[in-house]
Design brief:
The protein is built from ten helices and 13 strands. It is of the alpha+beta class. The strands form three sheets. A six-stranded antiparallel sheet has the order 6-5-4-9-12-13, with no helix packed on it.
Length: 407
């Protein structure tokens, strides 16, 4: 039987390996720029900007044109467009001379919209102090030679800028650029932006020489892989393993040893798939140095810890003849049901954070509804069979009782 269990576990691990490899292969495929809207393209052409693309977050669009001024400098003209639905707020675009596209260290151009509809545009150096709550104040950026707020495009505002970038610091084939939108200002200064994924992911490495080909979207792909693996592993296979043990171990069905093979196979495979998704989540949290979804992360750590304790049952399970086996069974069952509740809560938290929309939400609700319907049907059948057997046993006992002697 051990050989059979091992073979079954191996056959279940194979699809996991294939799924993981395919997921990571998809990350290696480059992301081609999406064309921008016709209205924005017309406005960009008026500025003689040759290239244009739709950025992947905040409904933003970006147009540019560049040429070498000298061997040491590159003139770059850009136009940035974003939606700002509030009466006041700000929008920003900038470049980061560091090793990665991120907010801290960005040389930004920020256009601020006041409550009376007027605009003010200036340059800003975004530092760590800004992240810690200090006010973001205008500062001189020498390579920005011209900037202005342009006309609206389909209820979106645009801004234009001309930059002369030192080529030893900025590479047009791997330019770290950042864009952002915020909805609050104070005394004419921009305040912090929302911390949704749309805002956190508003960065990329862009190749201005290759139609805006970008390489900064890998975190978005990884988040999708993270979500899918967790839903399959923690949110689907583990419940199936619990249903198998609950209804096919002793009563109402006794599939020996099939139930054990299915239970172990689903639990082990679900654990491996889930832990892969969990590891990707840890990597994403580490790469997002300035933004952390604390509740989702803490729930994830708790799920990993409790599921690992459950997996130790493979080696630490007491024998059937041991006196404390029944107490171990109680702990194992209640911990498993409690773990499921935490998993369901955290998956919905992750879907909310991911902003996957109704497809993710209702897709998983449908998954839970199917599993719940199966479990409910088996539970009803269990109790019906239990009462039928009890009634049958009672009827047989009454039939076998000796008749009273006549006086």
């Amino acid at each position: 039987m051990k050989r059979q269990q091992k073979n079954m576990s191996s056959s279940l691990i194979l699809p996991l390996t294939i799924l993981t490899v395919l997921s990571f292969l998809s990350l290696a495929i480059g992301h081609r720029a999406q064309p921008c809207s016709e209205e924005f393209l017309k406005l960009a052409q008026q500025k003689n900007l040759s290239d244009c693309k739709t950025l992947r977050t905040l409904g933003a669009e970006f147009a540019w044109s560049y040429h070498n001024v000298t061997n040491k400098s590159i003139e770059l003209e850009i136009m940035f467009c974003a939606t700002l639905p509030t009466p006041q707020g700000w929008m920003a675009w900038g470049v980061n001379p560091g090793k990665r596209p991120e907010m801290i260290g960005t040389k930004a151009i920020i256009a601020i919209k006041h409550g009376d509809g007027t605009w003010k545009i200036d340059t800003y150096n975004v530092t760590k102090e800004t992240r810690n709550g200090c006010s973001l104040l205008p500062s001189k950026i020498a390579f920005v030679t011209n900037m202005s707020v342009e006309q609206k495009v389909a209820n979106r505002n645009t801004m234009y800028a001309r930059l002369v970038l030192p080529s030893e610091v900025y590479n047009v084939t791997k330019l770290n650029h950042v864009w952002q939108v915020g909805y609050d200002i104070e005394d004419g200064h921009p305040l912090g932006h929302p911390t949704t994924l749309r805002n956190v992911d508003s960065t990329e490495v862009i190749d201005l020489t290759d139609n805006g080909r970008s390489t900064g979207q890998y975190r978005s792909y990884l988040r999708s892989v993270h979500g899918v693996l967790n839903i399959i592993g923690w949110g689907t296979l583990l419940p199936i393993g619990i249903i198998t043990a609950r209804y096919f171990r002793v009563f109402p069905f006794k599939w020996e040893p099939m139930w054990f093979n299915l239970h172990i196979g689903c639990q082990l495979t679900g654990f491996l798939v889930g832990i892969t998704g969990w590891a990707i989540g840890l990597s994403l949290g580490h790469s997002s140095r300035y933004y952390t979804f604390h509740a989702h992360r803490n729930y994830g750590i708790l799920i990993f810890t409790l599921s690992t304790v459950q997996m130790l049952a493979f080696r630490l399970k007491p024998k059937v003849t041991d006196d404390y086996r029944k107490y171990w069974n109680m702990y194992h069952h209640f911990l498993g049901y409690g773990l499921l509740a935490i998993i369901f809560i955290n998956i919905f938290k992750g879907i909310t954070i991911l902003e996957g929309g109704v497809a993710w939400k209702w897709g998983y609700i449908g998954n839970l509804a199917l599993l719940g319907t199966i479990a409910f049907g088996l539970e009803v059948f269990t109790w019906i069979r239990f009462f039928m057997l009890k009634h049958k046993q009672g009827h047989k006992a009454n039939k076998n009782q000796p008749e009273p002697e006549a006086n």
